[in-house]
Design brief:
The longest helix has 22 residues. The protein is an alpha/beta fold. Helix 2 crosses helix 8 and helix 4 runs parallel beside helix 5. The chain is globular, with a radius of gyration of 19 Å. InterPro entries: NAD(P)-bd_dom_sf, SDR_fam, Sec_Metab_Biosynth_Oxidored.
Amino acid sequence: MPTHAEILTSNALLNDTTTPLISVFVGATSGIGKLTLRALVATGASTRIYLVGRPSSHARTQPFLDELHTLNPRATVIWTEAEYSLLSETRRICNHILAKETRIDLLFLTAGYAPMFTERQETAEGIEITQSLAYYSRVLFILGLLPALKAKGEAPGRVVSVLGGGLETKGGVVLDDIDLKRPGNFSGPGAQRQYLGLNSVVMDRLAEENPEVVFLHAWPGWVDTGNVHRGVREGTVWGVFVRWVLAPLIGLVAIRNEVAAQRYLFEATSAYYGGGGVEWRGKGGVNVKGEEGRNGLFLVNYKGECTPNLKAMESLRENAREKVWEHTMRVLDQYLVK
């Protein structure tokens, strides 16, 4: 496991050559995405970043954009507006970025929130909103931008999806109701288990089919990003509990923001995970196939440590992957570029 000192040493080596030249951040108007984006800009490197944010986030994000420009005038952060809970909007933004860029070095995905003790809420496209954000939209961003992620560059393109990598269980995916539509199947904890399992299953297949790209599915642990309030109705019993009990508790045990920012910057740029990025000397991370020093899918915990979860991933690969893939492709089919 990389120590915090080793992470800081690696991040200090980021410059115009080792920093991702072109990045796409989805969901970085708050939380871990925002922390990582600021840390990337703070390297001082010349880099171009597309910040994909919802229309309702633009006004409150403008001061952050101004801060980034002051922090590093050599970095170009391009506000890219999209209601990315809608798959049609996700496809539009992928096409928009591909029309401008032939190569993408980093795709960083953090959009979404935990649907704790709330009922199903569907988008205009008929998909439960938290599942669209945490799963379908993320997969569509990867598939839509894959041609640019695979384009030849100084290092392999990299995808970092922050949700729950390493927490998979052998039976953690409900295969006969993947979208959790049946009464009793949708709940906060159940949805979280489902979405993190779905992400790992599909990213496992994508990593096999695209060995020139590095995939990370990360679990952030406790970070006080404020997202615990997302989807919570004020005045409800759960809302009161979150405000007066859960949120203060998270504040007490959470990883400091500056520590989390450096860890995710490391995950986005270090050759510890696969064969590209800032050079790593010594034992590297192990992917979900148990391989060290090779590309693939890496499940990463809140310390930056690889947790391959080999038995669970082997079971999911054998028993769930193809069914999940076929279902996902049916849902995404009309939004894929043909």
